[in-house]
Structure formats: structure tokens, C-alpha cells
Amino acid sequence: MKRVSFKNRNIDVAANIHFPNDFDPAGSYAALVLATPGSSVKEQIGAVYAEKLAERSFVALTFDPSYQGESGGEPRDLEDPATRVEDIRCAVDYLMTLPFVGEERVGLLGICAGGGYAINAALTERRFKAIGTVVASNIGQAFRRMLPDVSQTLEEVGKQRTAAARGGVPRRDPWIPDSLSQAQAADITDPDLLDAVTFYRESHHRHPNSTNRLLFTSYGQLLSFDAFNLVPELLTQPLQVIVGGKRGSTGQYEAGQRLIELSPADDKDFFVVDGAGHYDMYYKPEYVTPAIDRLTPFYTKHLGG
């Protein structure tokens, strides 16, 4: 693995590139860009999948989104779908500068919110020859469904922007509770949310660069975003959709079904990992391995062995 960086306009995007064990810089490789979940950094879910795919002879690039992790950009903790999608396009620009990456051998893998961002990027980024998703989320739709009052949230966004324009302190809210004890104190019982807290805040996958904070005004961009809107018209690439068999509050199963239904691709596949919940698919070997086993022949077929 090598630490690298690339530009999204004037922002330095921090990335890790994972190499096959027998990597030869004089060779030519199929390469994958990995788009990771909201609030996640490259050392978490991206690293899990990138390491496994590198073991299968792919070059795999995972990165911190602009405004987050080790990447640059102000204000911090901004989650802006347009910028997240542009990060993905800029990642391809970077791969095109590497002599060992086959120009016609680049694919894309998106996980959770990164799945929605990946699909949105692929609508117009034809340098991606094959698209995969794991527990994909259409983040805008998900927030519109989960927030108790979307209209009230947007009113509060406007007030917060006014306060910030007048010199006030930016508001940053937790994506999820900071600990299981906080979740329990708040009487949270949703299994998916508790699994998220366990993974991000209580397991060895917790990382100091993952702040678990969302700049509140991000809702102004998030709530109008629809990752799948133009899929029937513009998504032409082969598509592999992977979901966990346990349906839950994240809606990952339903989002995967909708994505498959919308896709006009002749080569598309919907694969269910039996017994897996949303967050199980992030890191548990018994669920990640079947996903990698499904993705490997898919990418090999369309990107070359």
C-alpha cells in the first residue's frame, strides 16, 4: 500500500493505493476506485475491500472525501454530494496518470452512501467500464425518509447559514451516537444503528480521522440529491449489485432492488449475501468474502484478467 494524493480542483484529496502481492510496476493492471460510506475514512471499509481486491490482482484506490479525514477543504465535515461525485471523477484522472493502469481497465466499487455516489458518477463517467455496489444507499432519499421533519430541517439549515454568515460557530451534529452507552441512554434499539455504533465507535475499526460529525448545513445539499434519478437514461455499464440478506432500517436491500430495476444494462446481477445485515457487510469475513468472490469474476470479465 502506498499513500498518494490527487486534486479535486484546489483541494488535496488524500488516498491509499493498494497493490497486488506480485505487483510489477512495468506491468499493466485492472484498477478499481472505491467510494466509501458517509463519515468513513479510507482506513476503514475502503481498506477492507481494497486489501481483498488487491489480493485478487487488482490495483485498488480508496480515499478520504474532500472536507473529511486527511483530505483538504473547508468547511470541515461537509458532506456535499456534488463534491463526493467529483472526487470519484478526479480519482480516475489520477489513475490515468499511472503507467501500470490499463486505460480501458478501470472499474468502480461503491459501498453504502458511496454506492449511490458511485452510480451518480458512472452516469457520465464512461472511463469506468464496470460498476459494483455493496449495500448501496441513495443518501438523499435515505435522509428524506429518516428525518422526522424534512421541511423543519431545511428551515433550520437556513437559520444556521444566516448565523454562520454573521460570524457564528458552525453547527456539527453526530452522524450516530458516539458510543453504545450514549445510544442506550437515548433508548435507541434499532439494530442497524447499534451495529453502526459498534463498528465506527467501539470496534478496532474506529479511526481518529473519522470524526463522526456532519456539518449541519450539509442537509441543504443532501436532501435534494437523488443518486439514481437518471439511471434509466444514462447508466450503460455492466452492473453488479450486492446486498445483505437482512432487511433493516438502512433500506440497503430495497435500494439495491430499485437500482437493478432501473438499470438498462444487459449485463446486470443482483446478489444477496444471506444472513448479513448492512454493517456486517463492512468488515465481517464471513460476509465480505462472498461479496469479493462475486465481484472478482465480474471485474475480471469486464476489465480483463
Please indicate the percent range of residues in DSSP E strands (runs of 2 or more): 15-25%
Q: What overall geometry do the principal axes of the alpha carbons give? A: globular
Order of helices and strands: EEEHEHEHEHHEHHEHHEHEHH
Low-confidence region ranges: none
Q: How many helices?
A: 12
The structural class is alpha/beta
How would you characterize this protein structure?
This protein is α/β, with parallel strands linked by helices. 39% of the residues lie in helices and 20% in strands. It is built from twelve helices and ten strands. It has helices at residues 45-55, 81-95, 113-122, 139-146, 150-165, 180-185, 191-202, 219-222, 231-234, 252-262, 280-283, 285-303, and strands spanning 2-8, 11-18, 29-35, 59-63, 101-111, 131-134, 172-174, 213-215, 239-244, 268-273. The longest helix has 19 residues, at 285-303. The two termini are 21 Å apart. The mean pLDDT is 98.
